[in-house]
Every structure is written in structure tokens, then in C-alpha cells.
Amino acid sequence: MTRVLIVDDHPVFRDGLAGLLATLPWVQVTGTAGTAEEALTALQENAPDVVLMDINLPGASGIEATRRAAQLAPATAVLVVSMVDDDDSVFAALAAGARGYILKGASADEITSALRTVAAGGAVFGAGVASRLLARTPARRPGSVPLPHDGLTAREREVLDLLAGGASNRHIARSLGISLKTVQNHVSRILDKLQAADRTQAVLRARGIAPTPD
């Protein structure tokens, strides 16, 4: 059973989300909150597995609440569910410790899938968010200080940098002068070493944006 705390200052959305989650047999809504302070109190009292966090809250913001939640309950995952769609807010939320970021316009299936992913220790980003994160996160340039890629080989780092630029497997193969099958093997090993579910998550983890499971 996944225990969930919902934090949003709009009662209609908050209650609607609670109603959606009540239909899921693997979810238990432990409480709701309309402010950051209420959220932090409920976090300590109810020990949820996941907090669904809005950004625009009265008083302290959802980003500040996320930062404090990460300190109070590091085992609890925060998934931001917000109408705010600017890059700075996304980066700030992730830097504060959020494990995912989706928009309120997401479908019920997308919200459910995102919740399941972060509850399992993964990172998730809604449509359009991940691609903008990659665009804002520069790839490592030749000669720069290598990033800590958790045991990746030099070739795997090259492949990862090309992935960060949005290159397809075929483009990577042409760029590096290797076969498509070799690229696929490299990508598979990168995902395994970074414990990533997909290419986007691998790049974000390598860049230090998305956390790596313990």
C-alpha cells in the first residue's frame, strides 16, 4: 500500500485528486493540506510514502516545503503537481529534492503512472518537461572535467553526452563510427549502471538533476 499526502491550496482540485486516488486499491490517502506548514505537520504525523505537492501555496511555497520535507523525511518522495510550467520552477523543485514534476493538465492515467514511478524510487517528468530540462542542461564538452557517471566507460560517456543532445541511436552510431547494435548495447549498459528506467532519466541522473536510488 502506498501512503499519499496531497498538498494543494485549491479545495476542488485537492478533493478531486483525493477522489481519483481513492479508486486505486494500492493507494491510501493519509491526509490533505492547503499550506506548507500544514503539509510538514501532516508529513511528520502520518509518514506518507509520497507527497503530491503544489508549488503555489500561501505563505511558504511548495518548493520550500519540498526542501524542508527532504530534510524531515528523506525517505518520502515528493512529486510536484502544478500549473506552473516555467523552467526555473522545475529546476528549483528538483534542486529542492522533488523526485518528479508533472502538470495539473496531466490525465488521470499520467498522474497514476507518475505516482507509481516515484513510489518505486524512480524519477518522472511530464510531457515537455524532460525535453526542456535536457535543453537547459549542457552536455559535457571535450576536455572538461568528467562528471561522476557511476562507473561509465569513456565510450559510454560519449554516448550519454550525445543522448543529452537528443541524438537518436542511428545518429550516435554515425557520429561515433560504430554499429547501431553497439550503440544499443551501450545505451542498455548506461541505463543499468545509472539505474534509470529510460534515456531521459539516465541523462538527468548523470547531470545530478534526478536522484539515484539507494
Describe it.
Helix 6 packs parallel to helix 10 (199-206) and helix 7 (154-164) crosses helix 9. With 214 residues, the chain is of the alpha/beta class. Strands 2-1-3-4-5-6 form a 6-stranded parallel β-sheet, sandwiched between helices. 38% of the residues are buried. The protein has helices spanning 11-22, 36-46, 62-72, 87-96, 108-119, 129-136, 154-164, 169-176, 180-193, 199-206, and strands at 2-7, 27-33, 50-53, 77-82, 100-103, 124-125. Residues 139-146 have low confidence and may be disordered. The radius of gyration is 18 Å and the shape is elongated. Helix 3 (62-72) links the parallel strand 3 (50-53) and strand 4 (77-82).
Shape: elongated
Structural class: alpha/beta
Average pLDDT reading: 84
What is the helical fraction, as a range of percent?
Answer: 40-55%
Q: Order of strands across the biggest sheet? A: 2-1-3-4-5-6
Order of helices and strands: EHEHEHEHEHEHHHHH
Question: Uncertain segments of ≥5 residues (pLDDT<50)?
Answer: 139-146
Biggest sheet overview: 6 strands, parallel
The gyration radius over C-alpha positions equals: 18 Å
Q: What share of the residues does DSSP label as strand, in percent?
A: 5-15%
Termini separation (Å)? Answer: 20 Å
How many strand units?
Answer: 6
Number of helices: 10
